[in-house]
Structure formats: C-alpha cells, structure tokens
Design goal:
about 220 residues, alpha/beta, Ribosomal Protein L15, Chain: K, domain 2, 3-stranded parallel beta sheet, 5 helices, 6 strands, about 10% strand
Length: about 220
C-alpha cells in the first residue's frame, strides 16, 4: 500500500510562535551561569531578603504612609468621614449614555440592565448618572438618579421611576447631645410628716407606761 503524500503539517512540526516563549531564568546555579551566589539580588539591603517583593499595599519603606499622614474625619455618622458605616457607597453607577443602546419606548428595568451587562445583578442599588447624551424616549427604573440624569432623560421625553427603599439622598443624622441629669427631688418631700412621727411616738410611750404600771401592781 502506497504511503499518503505528506500534507506539510504534523504533530512533530508544531511549535510556539517565535518570540512568544522564553526559557525560565534559573538562578542560584553557580557563578558560571551569571545569576549564581546572590541569584541576581545583589548584596545587602531590603530587596535581597526573602519576602521583600510581597509588600502590603501602601507600604513606603517604613516611613509614615500617606493614608496615615492625611487628616480624617472619624466616625460613621458624618458624610465626609471615611468610607465606612451607613454612609459607605453601595450603588452601581449607570450613565445615561449607556441607555442609548435600547430602542425608543423601551421600559428599562433592573432585569434589562442585567441582561445588557450594564450591572452585575439586582442585589445592589442602581444609580443613574448624567454622563453622555440620550436621544430616545425611555422609561428608566432605578433606585437613584442624579440631577443631571433626570434632566437628560426628561429632555428626551422619557420618564424617571424611582424604586426600592433608597429613593432620595438621606439627610445626615443630627449631632448627638448629652442628656441632662434629672433634677433630684427636694429633701423635704422624702422626710415623713412630723405629725405622724409625734403620734407614733406618743402611742409607743403610752404603751410602755401602761406596761410599767401593770408590772408594779403585781
């Protein structure tokens, strides 16, 4: 049986594209390799130590880092505080320019935004921002809208529908005030009436005297 003519492509001919693969740098294999002894890290210093290339974010060599040098407003009860507590931003932004992909007259819901991959899911409140232009009449459902977004949507003839528990920017809570201690009752009110004391004392004295007279007669 005659052999088939070679097609010019066989398994032993497969190879990566030129320049797409580089050999691994083998360090610590003797001084003749060029990367022996100190393995290319040089002599002393921080970067010659183990773990020196896995530093935490914001590390500045031991000096006071930037996030500790700048001033902060502590606490979670102020909108200008650090992003923590009840004022942490937990909304997914969607610009009005991204809504241009929908047809005119479409009712843009959270499910439609998710299917269009504009938001990841319906578990996080969605806020529509005013970046971009919108020329189609849409009915947009979202938890929050910026002032610019409302103007752009309504200028195109659309409608804004706020849904969910988050509707408006929540006002900042009032500052905490210390409660004043309640005024103590006057001492005179706590003392019993003097008349009652006298009557009780007289009664006790009379009883003692009668008991003494009975004992002397016997």
């Amino acid at each position: 049986m005659a052999d088939k003519a070679p097609t010019g492509l066989n398994l032993h001919d497969l190879a990566p594209a030129p320049g797409s693969h580089r050999d691994r740098k083998r360090v610590g294999r003797g001084p003749g390799s060029g990367t022996g002894k100190t393995s290319g890290r040089g002599q002393k210093g921080q970067k010659s130590r183990s773990g020196s290339h896995r530093l935490r974010m914001g590390f500045e060599g031991g000096q006071m880092p930037l996030y500790m040098r700048v001033g902060k407003l502590r606490g979670s009860n102020h909108r200008k505080s650090m992003p923590m507590g009840p004022f942490r931003t937990r909304t997914t932004p969607v610009n009005v320019g991204a809504l241009e992909r929908f047809d005119a007259g479409t009712e843009v819901t959270l499910e439609l935004l998710t299917n269009a991959r504009l938001v990841r899911g319906t578990g996080t409140p969605v806020k529509v921002l005013g970046d971009g232009e919108l020329t189609k009449k849409l009915t947009v459902h979202a938890h929050r809208f910026s002032k610019r977004a409302v103007e752009v949507i309504e200028a195109a003839g659309g409608t804004v529908v706020r849904i969910g528990p988050v509707t408006e920017e929540e006002p900042a809570p009032p500052p905490r005030t210390r409660r004043k201690p309640a005024a103590s009752a006057p001492d005179e009110a706590a003392e019993p009436e003097p008349a009652a004391e006298d009557e009780a004392g007289d009664t006790a004295t009379d009883t003692d005297e009668d008991a003494t007279d009975d004992a002397s007669e016997e």
